[in-house]
Design goal:
Length: about 475
């Protein structure tokens, strides 16, 4: 429940902070208005941490730059065309705080692209009304501390509701990316999206096509880094908006045949995502949210709809859904312009996510454990988390057995790593030594010999150079 008295006190503290006070004095002395706007005001009222400060003013960009130069250590005007000037303003302790100051805006959109025709405005109220949601359309004026809330943002904070300041069809028609932001803020704040706003998202979802893949990707990643991305994903799926950029997720809602029974793949995937986040926080409590891991958790079963087969007797199979899903994820993430490292990590995790379950059925040899580590490579820690998160059975005995089996494999990996430098498994002889021993030049035969020695290393561990050379000569002399 929002404590308004405490929230108002936090607004006062925000206005009194040294950086805000310095800027307020500078703009007032220059004869211009200044207000903290958007997220910092919302978060102060909610008791959440505030980060970079955003301001709005009636001053034009050239005037903003002139005002902030004497009180800042650096300035940048990369957003000048949109009325935004950035600066680093020092605190008394010597540390500097990054701020952005934007001229009041009254943008208009042409409906064919997400780029607005930039028009500067003259009033704070008009600037606030053009923003995405009422809870982001509040401002705190300084140095005269006053909360300006023309669209009912405080009431929506109290109610835990996301609503656009104007008709949502107009707001989303102006900027379709706001539909994705609705899902993200729902997850970030734990708020419900107002019914009319949800309806507008469903009706206008096709307009997302004018937004660049990079911008869509950015919002998806921000959603996944929230505390509860599942809430936002449900908004995307329930409105159909996700079908415009990630239809594989809604396809997980498989039709249930009355004669064939299997778990709800969509709900299972959301549970895996939640559990992966819990494991991630436990293992790496101080690390930033892992977007690649969370993508892999959400998408790990997207190959199931394509591979589903209804068998006699009511069984349902999804043979090779791991390999199929890996390829599907790679293609989709490429379309969303994710970077190569993220794409490789997600596709590899999906490809390997079933590998462990063979271990649970019977103890692996040391060779199998080595291969598991080698195949996972740099994704091993993520694979540990994904595999544990993929256990969603309600059968406590089965869940405990699988957890115990994975504890065991992690312990064996740790033991082998101590013994054998498991993270860098390679043959005991390199390519140059292979050529010397066999008397052959560089070429395909060296590669075949190298692979033979790598398999030997994985199967039997460290044998020593003399024994490895003997085995290599025997392999080479044997009929191929």
């Amino acid at each position: 429940m929002l404590n308004m008295a405490a929230g108002v006190a936090r607004l006062g503290d925000l206005a009194a902070s040294p950086v805000v006070a310095a800027l307020a004095r500078a703009f007032a002395d220059a004869g211009h208005d200044l207000s903290i706007v958007g997220g910092p005001v919302r978060d102060a009222l909610l008791g959440r941490a505030t980060h970079d400060l955003d301001f709005t003013t009636d001053a034009r960009p050239d005037d903003i730059l002139r005002i902030v130069k004497p009180i800042s250590t650096a300035q940048w005007d990369i957003g000048r065309a949109f009325g935004t000037i950035g600066a680093r303003v020092p605190n008394p302790d010597g540390a500097a705080e990054q701020v952005e100051i934007t001229t009041y805006r009254a943008d208009s959109y042409d409906g064919a692209s997400r780029k607005p025709a930039v028009e500067f405005g003259d009033t704070l109220e008009a600037d606030l009304v053009r923003r995405d949601f009422t809870v982001n359309a509040m401002a705190l004026t300084v140095p005269e501390v006053k909360l300006v809330d023309p669209t009912g943002g405080v009431e929506d904070l109290l109610g835990g509701v996301l609503r656009t300041p104007i008709d949502p069809r107009i707001s989303f028609g102006d900027d379709p990316l706001r539909m994705l932001r609705a899902a993200r803020f729902s997850a970030q704040l734990g708020f419900d999206v107002e019914a009319g706003t949800l309806e507008a998202i469903g009706a206008l979802r096709g307009t997302l096509s004018i937004v660049s893949p990079e911008r869509v990707q950015g919002e998806l990643s921000r959603l996944l880094t929230t505390d509860d991305p599942v809430r936002g994903i449900r908004v995307l799926v329930d409105t159909g908006l996700i079908d415009e950029f990630l239809p594989e997720v809604s396809a997980l809602r498989l039709e249930v045949d009355e004669h064939h029974h299997h778990k709800d793949v969509y709900e299972h995937s959301l549970t895996v995502l939640r559990q992966a986040i819990e494991h991630e926080r436990t293992r790496f409590p101080d690390a930033a949210p892992d977007v690649a891991l969370r993508l892999a958790a959400l998408l790990h079963d997207i190959g199931k709809p394509r591979t589903r087969k209804l068998e006699k007797g009511g069984a349902v199979t999804f043979h090779h859904h791991d390999v199929v899903g890996s390829r599907m994820a790679r293609k989709r993430l490429q379309a969303l312009r994710y970077d190569g490292d993220t794409i490789d990590a997600v596709s590899r995790l999906i490809e390997l996510h079933l590998r462990f379950f063979g271990y649970a059925e019977g103890t692996w040899t040391d060779s199998a454990v080595r291969r598991y580590v080698r195949d996972a490579g740099a994704q091993l820690e993520r694979l540990h988390i994904l595999t544990r998160a993929d256990v969603t059975t309600r059968n406590r005995r089965k869940a405990a057995r699988l957890a115990s089996a994975y504890d065991d494999i992690e312990e064996r990996i740790a033991q082998l790593r101590d013994q054998e430098e498991l993270d860098a498994i390679r043959p005991e002889l390199d390519g140059n030594r292979i050529q010397q021993i066999l008397g052959i030049p560089p070429g395909p035969e060296v590669g075949k010999a190298y692979r033979f020695l790598l398999d030997l290393r994985l199967d039997e561990g460290v044998l020593g150079p003399d024994e490895v050379e003997r085995r290599l000569r025997a392999w080479w002399d044997a009929p191929q």
